[in-house]
Amino acid sequence: MPGARVKVRPFCRGIRQMRDVSGQKGKETFMDIASAKQQIRETIQIYLAKDEAGHYRIPLTHQRPVFLIGAPGLGKTAIVHQISSELKIGMVAYSMTHHTRQSAVGLPVIVQKEYDGVSYAVSEYTMSEIIASVYDCMEKTGCREGILFLDEINCISETLLPPMLLFLQYKMFGGHRLPEGWVVVSAGNPKKYNRNAREFEVAIIDRLLYMEVEPDYPVWKRYALEKKVSGAVLGYLESHREHFSVIEKNAEYTAVVTPRGWEDLSENLRMREELGLTVDGNVISQYLQHPEIMREFAAYYRFYQRFKGRLDVTAILDGVCTEETLAAARAADPCERIALTGMITEALTGRMGEVMAHMEKLRQSKNRLQETSPDGGIPEDEKQRYQKRLAGLKEEQRRTQDALGAALRFLTEAFGEGNELGIAVSDLAMAPQSAAYLGQFPHQTWMRAAASGSLPAREEKLLERIAANRKQKSGGDETND
Q1: How many CB atoms lie within 10 A of CB 243?
Q2: Neighbouring C-beta atoms of residue 255, cutoff 10 Å
Q3: CB 46 within 8 Å of CB 15
Q4: What is the DSSP pairing of strand 90-95 with strand 146-151?
Q5: What is the DSSP string of 406-419?
Q6: Is 156 buried (19+), middle (13-18) or exposed (0-12) by CB count in 10 A?
Q7: How does 175-194 read in b/e, with b if 16+ C-beta sit within 10 Å?
């Protein structure tokens, strides 16, 4: 679950603190979690690169494990799972909190060996549980390469520190080496969040790519839009960003609100709304373990549901909203305006996602027809069925373009070309479903609004892609304005 910035320690090899030409020490480098994820992904790709003979170009002993450290609930584990899936490699995850020296290193066994003609009893070790799990994964999945993810690595016992130092350098536990092609990534919480955590000694730090992760709402919002997090959650956080990640300790209680908590709460809210179940403070407090934030969000959620019932978003997208609706929007306070904007963009994103899903199904259908009829002899009834579905898709796309235009006109008439329009334009560029749609079906009004505002750099690329696509087009349907 991405949603954090990463502070890179200046003493880490691979990602160093920058210095200017005068030799003065520069500021510490920060990057959002997407950039950090890319750095880890590229590091793994480098470690897995082979020479012409098929040998890994960087020896196992020179491959520094990554260490992500940050508050609970930031999505550190999720990042690693995503990378594993994207690179199509295996993954073994282990929590180090319960490991003793024996379980991690292996148990000693006595074996007989002969030296210079004399037999001796010699101590060796059984295979480490961790190393054995990697081999099990290789057998079950067929993946010869992968990620060994060691969570809570800074909570290991005192007796495990020396073997861990050896493992970080030589990737070996008790005489058994990690298979080549497996990269070590680790994570942990700072001591202020976990009393069992320890500060690593320099000897260990010097063997790690050390990255400190911090909460970052704008980055998490991009992820939240992709995961279709509840509009109530996004609307609240848009105007209460300071509540995105809060961990407080005092004599009476420990208050915890994390990005993971917001996402889990969103899933619960959606299910309760679908099933018609009650949402109250008792439910919300299970996810937002902070009395004040829980009460504020509970009040906002009640308001959000009432406001959602008063304003007909469907009518707005259909371009038939009444003057009464427009007047109510103009009279709304800033919090209500953000909520309404979120409702509109959520509905638009849903429609755009449906168009793209239907387009993909139609593409697959066309491919199947061509495969089954390589000589071009497609039956007439199949052609007619395909043409009917294509016409339906074009009509759906036309209605979606009209809805986008109606939504942008409504926001402009209600609030002017201000913050609300900027949020809508940016959110549509960030959500993968709507971004894919806009890349395929550019809309002039949206493009003008995006060009006149200030989109984040990542979303600026969408405008560039649209411009490039339009230059390449030599014909086809024009988009509706």
Answers
A1: 18
A2: 17
A3: no
A4: parallel
A5: HHHHHHHHHH-SSH
A6: buried
A7: ebebbebbbbbbbbbeeebb
213, burial (CB in 10 Å: exposed 0-12, middle 13-18, buried 19+)? buried
Q: Give the whole-angstrom CA distance, residue 153 versus residue 338.
A: 41
Other CB atoms within a 10 A radius of the CB of residue 148 amount to 25
Residues 157-170 as b/e (b if ≥16 CB within 10 A, e otherwise) read: beebbebbeebbbe
Q: Which two tokens stand for residue 383?
A: 């052609």
Q: What is the distance between the alpha carbons of residues 335 and 236, in angstroms, rounded to a whole number? A: 8
- Report which of 32, 34, 23 is spatially closest to residue 5, judged by C-alpha positions: 32
Residues in the chain: 481
> CA angle at residue 411 from 477 to 449, to 5 degrees?
55
Strand pairing partners for 122? 111
pLDDT in tens, the chain (481 residues): 666 555 544 333 333 333 233 333 444 445 567 777 888 999 999 999 999 999 999 999 899 999 988 888 888 888 999 999 999 999 999 888 877 777 778 888 898 998 998 999 988 888 888 999 999 999 999 999 999 999 999 988 888 888 888 898 899 988 889 999 999 999 998 888 888 888 888 888 888 998 888 888 988 998 898 889 999 999 999 889 999 999 988 777 789 999 999 999 999 999 999 999 999 999 999 999 999 999 999 999 998 888 888 888 999 999 988 888 888 888 888 888 888 999 999 999 999 999 999 999 988 888 877 777 666 566 777 788 888 999 999 999 999 999 999 999 999 999 988 788 888 988 898 888 898 999 899 898 888 888 876 455 545 555 565 555 545 544 444 444 4
Could you give the CA distance from residue 385 to residue 46 in angstroms, rounded to a whole number?
49
Tokens standing for 264?
């889990």
DSSP 126: P
